[in-house]
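Justification of computing resources. Each target in the renewal requires a structure prediction run like the one illustrated here; the chain below, 187 residues long, is used simply to show the kind of job we budget for.
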Amino acid sequence: VLQAIIHPDTNETIFMPFRMSGYIPFGTPIVVGLLLPNQTLASTVFWQWLNQSHNACVNYANRNATKPSPTSKFIQGYLGAVISAVSIAVGLNVLIQRANKFTPATRLLIQRFVPFPAVASANICNVVLMRHTELEEGIDVLDNNGNIVGSSRIAAKHALLETALTRVVLPMPILVLPPIIMSILEK
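Resulting structure tokens:
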């Protein structure tokens, strides 16, 4: 329980909505907003912004703080994630609406899946922009006793890749399964 509440590097308490254990309960209302049918441009922008704001706070609260990064790096990651999420979501929605080859029912079905690529790509963008200095400087490597034995760019690459993959997989069940289930129920 203590490890879920206290940051391992800073020994500070992580604010509940930004703990990894709070990711689902606090992120679920946002996901519901992302999946609302008949989104307007404003609602698409709002829900993508809110989702990336929450993700950025989770990323910051659970960051690797052994080698502090300037706040500008986190702001850069946040802005990159928001811009990529909004751009992809709005762009895909426009493309789907203009796709004359699809029936309205097919367009609606495809449109239900738009939040996932927008969120997944923005999450990757956020992680890479916020933590890219770790690739240059490396991250601390610890022995079995928790003592620092060195710094490794290879470990940083693995950590960044695993984090990015996790940020793609985490939203998958809640952004992909509901559209599939809804299309089956509607049939």
